[in-house]
Design brief:
four-stranded mixed beta sheet, about 180 residues, 6 strands, Arc Repressor Mutant, subunit A, single chain, 6 helices, two-stranded parallel sheet, alpha/beta, 2 domains, about 40% helix
Length: about 180
């Protein structure tokens, strides 16, 4: 499915890790905008999607609810229809593979490349993570460098946010353990 400009709406959601912008239409989530400066969020969304209207619809309400459930520790997997149509085939494959990585688990770029069927493409996986249009929902925060080293995260406040998300998941698992 390709992105149609009509019917594109967005909403801003305040979360434990800052403001998140949700962009979608009636059928699919188009992007989750997650940056450090919430004051610039609306401007960034409208620059990329000038036809979008600030308005909630059923899909965005469902996405907001699922994200809130995640932060509250009640959700480990998301049940949302995501629009991958604008992404290159390799990125789609990597993000689809990443979507199946268990809550609380981390893996390296190389391990993800292998799981995605391209064992020598760790750097390309890194580029796919950097352009992930669905942070948190497609959990790029779970991908780490060799030896478990935290590397690159463009959402929120960068590595501090990545560490916070990993800690959140680890704490929830320990609480249940």
């Amino acid at each position: 499915m390709t992105l149609h400009s009509e019917g594109l709406v967005f909403t801003l959601l305040k979360t434990l890790v800052g403001t998140i912008g949700l962009v979608g239409n009636d059928d699919r989530l188009v992007e989750i905008v997650f940056q450090a400066d919430p004051a610039m969020m609306k401007e960034r969304i409208l620059r990329k999607y000038p036809q979008a209207r600030e308005q909630e619809n059923a899909l965005l309400q469902r996405a907001a609810g699922q994200l809130q459930d995640y932060f509250d520790g009640h959700r480990r997997q998301f049940e949302l229809t995501l629009d991958f149509s604008r992404l290159p085939a390799f990125t789609r494959k990597v993000l689809t593979t990443l979507s199946r990585v268990d809550y609380g688990r981390t893996l390296t770029y190389g391990e993800l490349a292998t799981l995605a069927g391209s064992p020598r493409a760790a750097r390309a996986v890194g580029r796919a993570m950097a352009t992930n249009p669905f942070p948190i929902v497609v959990p790029c925060h779970r991908v780490v460098g060799g030896g478990g080293k935290l590397t690159g995260y463009s959402g929120g406040k960068g590595l501090a946010t990545k560490q916070w998300l990993l800690d959140l998941e680890k704490q929830r698992i320990e609480q249940e353990g």
